TrEMBL record:
GO annotation, biological process: phosphorelay signal transduction system
Domain of life: Bacteria
Pfam name, any one: Response_reg
Coiled-coil residue windows: none
SMART domains found in the cross-reference section: REC
Domain Response regulatory: 4-120
InterPro entries, sorted: CheY-like_superfamily, Sig_transdc_resp-reg_receiver, WalR-like
A GO molecular-function descriptor: DNA binding
Organism: Jiangella rhizosphaerae
Protein name: DNA-binding response regulator
Keywords in alphabetical order: DNA-binding, Phosphoprotein
4-aspartylphosphate: residues carrying this PTM: 55
Amino acid sequence: MRIRVLVAEDVDVVRDTLVALLELEDDLAVVAAVGAGDRIVPAALGSRPDVALLDVDLPGVDGLTAAAQLRERLPECRVLILTGLVRPDGLDRARAAGVSGFLVKDGPADDLVAAVRTVAHGGRVLPAQRV
């Protein structure tokens, strides 16, 4: 069974690249890709992803707020945060939002793919150091 993924990233080239990267994997299928935070929950309700890969800084609604909304509206969808901007309170906010994983964008592509799989199977992916 393929892992169904929603991608939320506001930069078109980054979103398209993430989708292409994930689609290279036989066990992953991108079922929705959005460029604004306020589109995450409606897209997730329509596509029923197993994992939502969310950027933190999105127009409309930020990724952590959307993560909390997903937890309420679609609790079976696990959230993996992918961010380029590391803030001191980022991990604390992510935990409070109920996310299953938190990655920084400057890591290897293989780590992202592995994190999607880990989160989909009920695991957690958190940075080794506090961010």
